Fold this protein.
Amino acid sequence: MRALADRRDIAPSRDQDAGDHRSVAVVGAGITGLVAAYELRRRGVNVTLYEASGHAGGAIRTSRTDGFLAEHGPNSFVTSAPVEALITQLDLEDDVVEANPSANRRYIVRDGLLRAFPTTPPAMLTTRLFSLRAKLRVLLEPLVRRRATDGDESIASFVRRRLGPEVLDYAVDPFVSAIFAGDPETLSMVHAFPRLFELEQQHGSLSAGLMATRGRKPAAAASTDDTTDETSDEGALPETAPTRARLISFVDGMQTLTAALEASLAGTLRLGCPVRLLHRDEGRWVVEAGQDGGARARTVDAVVMATPAHVLAAMELPAAMRKHAALVERVEYPPVSTLTLGFERADVAHALDGFGMLIPAKEKRSILGALFSSSLFPERAPDGHVAITCFVGGARMPERAREDTDLLVERVLMDLRQLIGVRGEPVFAKHVYWPRAIPQYTVGYQAVKNAVDETELANPGLYLGGNYRNGVSVGDCVASGQQIAQRVASYLTRAG
Ligand SMILES: Cc1cc2nc3c(=O)[nH]c(=O)nc-3n(C[C@H](O)[C@H](O)[C@H](O)COP(=O)(O)OP(=O)(O)OC[C@H]3O[C@@H](n4cnc5c(N)ncnc54)[C@H](O)[C@@H]3O)c2cc1C
């Protein structure tokens, strides 16, 4: 890597010569970076958005082949006021598709059988997903004393303590797999599910907390489970009336959102242009970006880093950032493979009448979960066919995610045959491997968050965002991009 001092062979760009003000470099064109760049541009800031790969969108990518639509990353997301505002601004209302109402039915596999997850008290009483003992244990939850300390605790420890081991194994574990591809024994309750953690802290029990907060508007979006009508502490997000949270995608898939953002950023996006170096120069920032041999330097007033956490480690950074970057780059991102399979309808016995099935670790299957994609949204499969999207790997079975496509299809098919009665062979298969899929908010994650905060404090004009900071869902990332843009805009105004 080139020494910081040796900058002579880097050609200055015209922007640098012009010495323009209120210019910002956004690094990483995933949803966080796209939204941050979009919001800054709306505020009249001169933005350059650098993306290392050849396409924008990051984890959000859709392909359609032979009438089958495959989501490479997220399949759907829950809206909030900031998301709805963005959809309106981008004129995407007519492209939105809400999940089929049957999506409320989520199957959990127990002893090889699909059981609908109970969502009402009567359903909880009659469900065969939990034993009588587990149901009684849930009824005792209000009597379980609050934990004495408010320190960090694993999700598994929290749930075992409050609701018992069966609820951990057959309710929480599969949902943790679905959101984080993670392990409840290592993920932090405080950081992964802050609102549930706070219910215990503030109300003594989850039951009391849920009763007390029923119908109340949550205060702020902190993480993946906090889908709220939040407004930022810095105040200038679009004012929007409280909205009903909707589970949505788009007619042509999730990429519609990132493609619309990309189109609105015409002229500012530099694809295939990895940022390799950042350094501070007389109160401004020098960003060096581009492929080997073609790197260019540009001086800007502020930088938004919207890359995965580990990217910081591979970059040449100012000394004030390096010690924090070393901590941030330790955030774990286990691998995940997504496998979208298409079948003739007659070859699947199950009604596929729901969101999909989640598979607890106890069941010892290859699949973490499978979405019934063509039941969830229209036009995911040609007439007479169905599409099922399966997730493999994650924190507990990383080696499975790395298997080649043939072996993966074989393993997944074995599960699908036994669980939902698949016969015959798939007529379509799309395999996408994510070597580093989703950041794990493990116990002790506060140290990472502190390092991020301290990095920003020590480096005026530098902002860090992305799914390792304020929640992993697409909605969290949209909110995060909007908030960062707002903070950058305030900084630029203050810096004058
Ligand atoms: C398989 C999978 C399924 C998911 N399912 C769901 C779901 O159903 N619902 C949901 O809400 N969320 C889901 N998520 C989570 C959600 O999609 C992600 O958390 C979110 O899209 C991450 O966005 P981001 O912008 O923070 O990061 P990313 O999408 O990772 O974008 C970061 C960008 O930075 C670029 N970059 C890296 N290094 C550099 C550099 N040096 N210079 C310039 N650019 C660089 C990368 O190429 C990338 O484009 C899923 C994620 C995965 C992987």
Remarks:
- Residues 27-33, 50-53, 58-60, 73-77, 274-275, 306-308, 311, 336, 338, 434, 437-438, 466-467, 472-474, 477 surround flavin-adenine dinucleotide (CB under 6 Å).
- The chain has three domains: 11-58+252-332+440-495, 62-102+333-434, 130-213.
- Residues 474-495 form the longest helix (22 residues).
- The chain is about 35% helix and 20% strand.
